[in-house]
Design goal:
The chain has helices at 22-26, 29-46, 62-86, 132-135, and strands at 13-16, 89-99, 102-107, 112-116. By secondary structure, it is of the alpha+beta class. The chain starts with 12 loop residues before the first strand and ends in a 30-residue tail after the last helix.
Length: 165
Amino acid sequence: MIVDDRFDGLDVAHVEATRFSGTCLNVGCIPTKMLAYTAEVAETVRAASSYGVDARIDRIRWSDIRDRVFARLDPIGDEGRDHRRAHGTVYDGTARFTGPRAMTVDLADGGTAEFTADRIVLAVGGRPVVPPPVADSGVPFHTSDTIMRIDELPEHLAIIGGGYI
């Protein structure tokens, strides 16, 4: 988000393979905290009788919870994309170095784009790693990038590994 009018004299390229605005906004701290707060609300209702309040939970509507979280967050990522378009060229895809100060972007639409630059800033965020025994097992799995957007909650869930998300 630091690219603004101060960079108007430069030709700026932004490359993003997924959603703009980073790990924290899209698959990390912010959505997980919003989901955790919803769980705290449910726990408050469950414990309400200890405060002399008769309350109960009739149902947990996962899709409503998920949709509320991402209806608030997705527009912020879209604004990040719009902001970058206003201050440079946006490439939807994955970049790789192809030479000194040279990059090729494998575009999401199947094409490629190439450019060179005097300065390149890498802000790559985080990615989940799926161990080969899991990835190759044929057993369905989710990662921290996908689990919060699933349509229905699984009946059982095992978490393998762990990181800051």
